[in-house]
Write a structure and sequence with these properties.
single chain, 162 residues, alpha+beta, S16 Ribosomal Protein, Chain: A, five-stranded mixed beta sheet, 20% strand, Ribosomal_bS16_CS, Ribosomal_bS16_dom_sf, Small ribosomal subunit protein bS16
């Protein structure tokens, strides 16, 4: 979901914000899609690009509480409201398209459910066979330890020869 929110900039204790359109999953000061405007809380100065802000709001971007109040003070939320009021009149005058819906028979759904249960039993069978090779691995590990001890014994004999 796209949000219109503030991105912090400026020095420590001298905050300055950019009003940006960004993905809601991105960090506050992370990357953004588009710059909408700026906000300086120290002197209350706001610079907005009205067309860009309206574009994002019309496309469904959700403003945060602070950005919503900034947009309201600049009259952008009223413009959006007026746009939404005028929009349904256009929809009523346009001819309605008939939706074609194809219903599937109920028997087809039950058949797919029964076939879906069969692979699940096959998976459990493969899980039980997967345990057998694991025991073979542990057997090879125990035999691998024996040659290591033989190497240490041969190295001791070489030291004794010197």
């Amino acid at each position: 979901m796209v949000k219109l929110r503030l991105k912090r900039a400026g020095k420590k204790r001298a905050a300055f914000y950019r009003i940006v359109a960004s993905d809601s999953r991105v960090k506050r000061d992370g990357e953004y899609i588009e710059l909408v405007g700026t906000y300086n809380p120290i002197n209350g100065e706001v610079n907005l690009q009205n067309e860009i802000a309206l574009k994002w709001l019309k496309n469904g971007a959700q403003p945060t509480d602070t950005v919503r109040s900034i947009l309201s003070k600049n009259g952008i939320m009223k413009e959006l409201h007026d746009y939404k009021i005028a929009l349904p009149k256009d929809k009523e005058s346009a001819p309605k398209k008939e939706s074609k819906s194809v219903k599937k028979p109920a028997t087809a759904k039950t058949a797919t459910k029964s076939t879906a249960a069969k692979p699940a039993t096959a998976k459990t069978a493969t899980k039980s066979t997967a345990a057998k090779p694991a025991t073979a691995k542990t057997a090879t590990k125990s035999t691998a330890a024996k040659p290591a001890t033989a190497k240490t014994a041969t190295s001791k004999t070489k030291k004794e020869d010197k």
